[in-house]
Design brief:
two-stranded antiparallel ribbon; mainly alpha; binds magnesium ion; 61 residues; 2 helices; binds adenosine-5'-triphosphate; single chain
Length: 61
């Protein structure tokens, strides 16, 4: 069977990226959900900051 390579976008959260085989599959839409205080805002901020800092992501699109 043909091997299809999946391009992934790192979240910048190292433990999570390791868990999900290197990042979120490129082009996927992610719904971040959870109760108050579970870390949604921290997750989003870290994604933006690490994207700019480490991966040259200068904008969100
Ligand atoms: N590095 C860290 N280590 C441990 N706890 C942290 C760290 N950074 C943030 N926190 C705490 O984790 C919690 C996550 O809060 P956050 O605001 O991200 O949750 P939220 O899911 O966005 O909540 P809400 O639904 O109320 O907006 C906060 O209590 C925060 O103080
Ligand atoms: Mg929040």
């Amino acid at each position: 069977m043909e091997r299809v390579e999946i391009h992934r976008v790192k979240t910048g959260i190292q433990g999570l990226d390791n868990l999900i085989q290197g990042g979120i599959p490129k082009g996927n839409v992610i719904l971040l959900t959870g109760p108050a205080g579970s870390g949604k805002t921290i997750f989003a901020l870290q994604f933006i900051v690490k994207g700019a800092e480490l991966y040259g992501e200068r904008r969100l699109c």
